[in-house]
Amino acid sequence: MKRAIELKVNGEMYPVSVSADRTLLDVIREDLLLTGTKKGCEAGECGACTVLMDGKPVNSCMVLVMDAVGREIVTIEGVGGLEGLHPIQEALVEHGAVQCGYCTPGIVMTAKALLDNQPNPTEREIREALAGNLCRCTGYVKIVEAVLAVSQALSQGRRG
Ligand code: FES
Ligand code: FES
Question: Which fold has domain 2-78?
């Protein structure tokens, strides 16, 4: 049986009719057509499906859509796009930290949550925050460098 619900995603209310056993990931991609959030393992292991829920990164493949009702969801489409990249996206590109790109939306979401809460993380804190976001291409070094660069730019901006 389907239920009529509303989801708040990227500041907009989306009315949808869904079965209660569907995941937030599937509804975001298939009903809302926000396909920037990637589907990888569907088992909570890879982080490709990371979105923010009330500011915290979650694996949307592990969240039942009913549990997202009344929460603030942010997907990669709410962070930046071709018309204006987020500083984390710019830094990933500048540091050559994007290869196939499949992990990138999830990494951006996790890094954004980290920097929103801890603007000056250490390299170790960045690595710990990103531990649940698997990347099979880059070896992580360039990703960590990119996030560090954004944090340094932010702190210079705050001092300036
Ligand atoms: S698709 Fe959700 S953690 Fe891999
Ligand atoms: S760039 Fe290919 S998985 Fe990360």
Answer: Ubiquitin-like (UB roll) (3.10.20)
pLDDT at 5 over 70: yes
Domain locations along the chain: 2-78, 87-159
Supply the CATH classification number for the domain 87-159.
1.10.150.120
Would the CB of 91 count as within 6 Å of ligand 1? Answer: no
**Percentage of residues in the chain having pLDDT higher than 90:** 92
Taking Cα atoms as reference points, which of 103, 115, 84, 85 lies closest to residue 142?
103
**In the structure encoding, which two tokens stand for residue 14, read together?**
């989306």
For residues 72-97, give the mean pLDDT.
94
Helix (H, G, I), strand (E, B), or coil: what is residue 98? coil
Q: Which atom of ligand 2 lies nearest, measured to the CA of 98? A: 1
pTM: 0.96
CB of 59 closer than 6 angstroms to any ligand 2 atom: no
